[in-house]
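Schema walkthrough. Field components (list of strings):
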Amino acid sequence: MNNFEAKALQDQEEQRQLHGPQETFFETEAQQDALSRKSPEILHEELKQEIANGLGRTGLYVESVSGISETLLKDAENITGSEGEEIAQRIENLQERSRGALEKYRAAVAVVMLAASSYAQAESVPNQSGRQVALKPAEVVSILPSENVNKIDSEKAPQSTETIAYKEVHLIENSHKEILPKQNVERSDSSTSDLSERFSARELGRIQHISESKNYEHLFLYKQGRNGQLELVTESKGGEDSGSIDMEVVLRAAKKTKGEIYFCHTHPVEGLTDFGLSKETIKKIQSGEKFSILQPLSVGDLLTYSTAYSELEKNGLNGGRFKECVVDGEGVWEFSFQKGSSISEKFQRYNDDFNRTFFESRDKDSAMRFFATVGSGNEEALSEKEKQEWRQFNAQHPEIGRSIEEYTTIVKSFYSEDLTDVFPQENIRAMEDWAGRHGLSLRYMPFPKSITGHKQI
Amino acid sequence: MTDMFSAQNIQKDKEVKSKILQQLYQGFQQEMKQLEEEQQKILLDMIKLKKTHE
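Field assembly_structure (string):
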């Protein structure tokens, strides 16, 4: 020990004698560790910022390369003959590759956003069951551009971005096959004919037109007629963001048919917090409007559906005959509880508890406001106290809570600043896969092109 | 529903995500640098061709 060290030790001992042992607020190392961490909100914000920075930087990078290429391409026009053509071809290839690099980067970021939480768990729980939890967001694969997934095994896959993206995709893709085989998932492929079977051409044209041209929620109630097609029972023209149809009318209609009952509704475009499908909406997004969240079904829809299901069952009618549909300018989302699934009871309990917790303690207006806010996934609009209440409530229903949380995560991942196509096939499949795994049946049925191509707005 | 995850997992989750994001950006950068080099080559080839034609 040298003099300095000896002096330091002596000072320390003197301090100890003067002040006693240093008191610590933290009793254990784990507590100290926990308190030294950043809050989840801060971490979330940091990550959002990192993602935004990455997307911004890569976008600018490609823009810059693209700008130079454009100039070169113009210059190449002055070079005559095959040499000029060859140069132009090289520039075009380069353009294509830079756009491809950006696409792959974005696809990989989507994978990271959805999948990486699982990697953290996978590392700590390396066994099979841990992996199952860990690789939960298998639908990541579905939201990726299919051409990227198809290229996974391509020998041409170069290093760097592509390789990393492919590795991640491959990992999830394989796990998806091993652990989460396709189960009870109804596909929407070529389902146009399903809509035509359900509705007359005239009615289809009418609801499509209404869904694109109204700024408030419009409700339709149908019952299945003898020829199998749906007959309009009643419709509520609303005039506000949210309309309603009396449950007694639903029950009467259910008693009059042994077939299916369809409760269809649009979502208001202007008051959009939960629905972003119609062309009008996409136009709005393209014009620079921002939306907090885009989702084809809201929690409110699930709650409405389970209420009607429950009421039918209580009246001795088969709740499974009840279908809820959301109509947008492009097609119809149809959803219901899957036959024989246990989710119906769980949803009913969730719904009953929801009513008890949030409706019985509030006046009607306040309860409806709360319902509309959480129902549309716009939790940010809640007060701190309400946020706390809502989190506690969901923690008491972990299975439903997780299911809704996963759903929201998937749908939020569709959102991007340069959104041009909200629901390509990949996204629709991700939604349907989610529903299939949670005992819900969800199908997207696009309107026939003959309608969407000739609509009058 | 962050309540469902422990703080430790959230922290770890963020670290892993940040790390992968960083790697992805580096990969993207490398790829773009290659493209920039190719762009330079195209430019040089064009200059040569123009001179030849002149």
